[in-house]
Amino acid sequence: MSRVDGRNRAVSPVIGVVILVGIVAILAATVGVFALGFNEQQPTQAPQVAIVADYNERTTGNGEYLNLSFKSGDTVYRDNLTVVVSGAKSSGGSDVTLDSDPIQAQASTRITSGTEITIHRGQFSGIPSGEQLDLRDATLRLVWDPVSEPGSETYVIYRWPDPSRRN
């Protein structure tokens, strides 16, 4: 005959409680992942591009100009890029504003190695007649926006001049 005491019968309820707690913990973790949004996509990675800048300080008919040459790297779509110039002036010292985006005007739909963009006087407003474009203290940034949705992150994929080389 088997003995009926508390020792033999208590094992089954303890194992049942442990299994039940484990199932509840797994369910809670699964619901938490979906409720807190951990299943959302990771942010889009900015394209990697190698760009060479050729800055010419001579004051010809258009004054100073800056050529950007895409040498290698990822293909970038023109509609995702914007040129931002700050600190540009006229040769007389007045602030000037970039009116047209050189990327949109000069690049094909797909920007790959070999693409060249020129930033010059004709793209700026506020330059009085007889004065030239002065880019000595200007800063240029190429800003990449992956999508046209509100709240999407943008990335600066190129800066001129390189902040570490600025006087």
Question: What does this entry look like structurally?
Answer:
The protein has 167 residues and is α+β, with helices and mostly antiparallel strands. It has a domain of 111 residues. It is built from three helices and twelve strands; from the N terminus they run ααββββββαββββββ. Strands 1-2-8 form a three-stranded antiparallel β-sheet. It has a three-stranded antiparallel β-sheet with strand order 4-11-12. The radius of gyration is 30 Å and the shape is elongated. The termini are far apart. The model has no long low-confidence stretch (mean pLDDT 83).
Ordered list of secondary-structure elements with their pairings:
Layout lengths: L5 H4 L1 H25 L13 E12 L2 E11 L2 E2 L3 E6 L2 E2 L6 E2 L3 H5 L3 E2 L4 E4 L4 E2 L7 E2 L4 E6 L10 E6 L7
Antiparallel strand pairs: 1-2, 2-8, 3-7, 4-11, 5-10, 6-9, 11-12
List keywords for this structure.
167 residues; alpha+beta; three-stranded antiparallel beta sheet; 3 helices; 12 strands; membrane; transmembrane; transmembrane helix; Archaeal Type IV pilin N-terminal domain-containing protein
Average pLDDT for all residues: 83
State the shape. Answer: elongated
Give the uncertain stretches in residue-range form.
Answer: none
Helix and strand string, N-terminal first?
HHEEEEEEHEEEEEE
Give Rg in angstroms. 30 Å
